[in-house]
Structures
1.
Amino acid sequence: MKKSTLLIIAMFALILNAKSQISPSTYTPVRKEKSIKLAGPRAGLTYIGGELGQQMKDNKMSQYISQVGWQFETRYFETRDGLQGLIETVILLGAIETAQPVLSASALVGFRTRQGFEAGIGPNISTAGGGTSSLVIAFGHTVKNDNVYIPVNFAIVPGASAVKYTFLLGFILRSDKD
C-alpha cells in the first residue's frame, strides 16, 4: 500500500515538473471555437495488390477499380499555429464498372497543418469478399480557396489477402453556418 502511494506521489511530482517546463513560446493553445463541418464528393482509383491482386491478374482481371463517393469532415479544433484536428468519414462505391460493385466506409482521426498537409488513421469496412475490416492509413494535401477545400489523398488499406492503394481527389464545402 505504501509503495503505491509513493508511486502516485512521484508520478504527480513528475507531471507537475514537466508541465512547469513548457514555455509560452513552445505551447500553442487551442482556439475555442465550435467545430466546423465540411462535406463533398470524392473520386479516384484503387490498385489491388497482394494475394488477391495476383489472383485477379491470373484471371486476366484488372487490378484497378474506380472509386466514387462522399466525404464528411469535422474539424474539431484548431491551434493558433493553424494545426487542425480532424474526424473524417469517407463512403465509397468501388468497381462500378464491374458486375460486382463494392461498398466501403472509413472513419479516420487525423490532422491538417496550416500548409495543407494532412494524415489520418482509422478503421475501414468493406463488402468485398463477403465483408472485411481493416485499418486505413491516409495522407495527402488540401488546398483551400475561400470555403472550398480541394483534397488530394493517398490511402493504404493492408488486409489479410490484399493491400489496396487508393488515390482520391474531390472537393469539400462548409456544410455548417458561420
2.
Amino acid sequence: MRKPIALITASTLIASFFLISPSQAASKPVVNPIPITLPVKPVGDITFANIEQRIADIPKAAYTSLQTVVSANPQPKIPVTILLGPNTKPESDAKVALGKIAKLWSGFRQPVTYHALVYNFKDKAWALKADAKVPVVAADGGSRGRASMSSVINQCSANQCGNANSGISDAKGSGYGQFQVSAGQIGPYQTMGGVFGHEYTHSVQAAQFLGNANVGKPVSQERAKYGLDNSPSGLFQGVLPCWMSEGMANFNGTAAVAPTFDDYMSWRTSAPKSQQTPDFTDFSAKSIEKLLMTGNPPKCLPPAGIYLMGYTLGALTVEALGSIAGPQASMAVVNLLGRGQSFEKAFKSVYGISWAEAAPILARVVAAEYAAAS
C-alpha cells in the first residue's frame, strides 16, 4: 500500500459525495454487495480468446470501459474530510479525485467516512498532530494505536517525502489515508490526482472485508511475522495476490481521474517500466506467468522486491482484464475473497474462465506490452 474535524491551523475541506451507502447490518456473515452480474460478459470486442491479437486496442478499451462506468454510476454519499497542511500545495485537487474514484466503485461497499491527510516535509510536525486527532486514530489509542499513520509520517524527510498509503483499520469502516507531497515528484500521476485514486481504491478493497468473521480476532504468529493484523486492510492484504492489489489501485486509480484517454496515456506510456527490482529481471511470458501464479501473500509482501511488480506488470494485467470485463470485475474478485472464496474460485466465478487458463494468456499479453514499452 505504498505509493501514497476541527480546523487544525490549516485548511480543512469537508466534501459530501452522493449515493446510499451499503447496509451496515450486524448480522453475520455479512454479504457485501456486488453491483454487476456474475460471471461477467465481455464489455466490448476483446475476449480471452482474441486478446493476444488485440493488444494494441487494450489501453483504449479498458479506459473507455472504465469511464463509461464512472459516467453511469451515482455519486456515493460518503463524508470526506481533507486535512491539508498549512504549507502544502498539492499538484491536484484531492476532493475532485476522491469523488471520481468513489463514483467508479459505487455499488460496492466503501468506507463509511474517509479522512485524507495531505502534507509535505515542512508540515511534518503539523501532520503528526493532525494524525492523532483523526477520529479513528483517537478512538484507537492515538498516535501509538494501529490506526495511526505516525510511523509513516516520521519517515518523511527533506530528501524523501513522497509516500502514501490508505486503508481501513476498524470494524466500522473508517477509511483513512496519508499523502505526502514532494516537490520532486511532479508528473501525470500527481497532476491528475492518481495518488488519491490509487490509495482510495485500497480502502475500497479493504471495505470488501467489513463484516468478515475474522475482523478484530487475535493475530496468529505467522500473520504477525509479515506485519498483517486482522483489520479489514490486513485481511485483504493477506489473501489478495500482490500483483492484483497494486495493479488494481494503479490502473483503476489513474484511469478514473484522467480526464481524457490522452491524459491517461501520458501516464501509461512510461508506467510499465517505472519500477525495477533485482528480485525480478526476466520479463518473458513464462516468468510473468510464474509471477501471476505464485505472487501471493504473505511472501510477496514488502520488503519482497516482487511487490513492486504490482505497480507495473500488475497494472498491465488489470488493464487487460478491464478491457475484457470492465473495471468492476476485479473488485468483484476482492469481494468474493472477503466472503471466504479462494482466489482461483473467485476468479472463475467472476470471469467465467479458470485462473489456470487465463494466467498464461495474460502473461503473454503483458510480456508483449512490456517489451514494447519505452
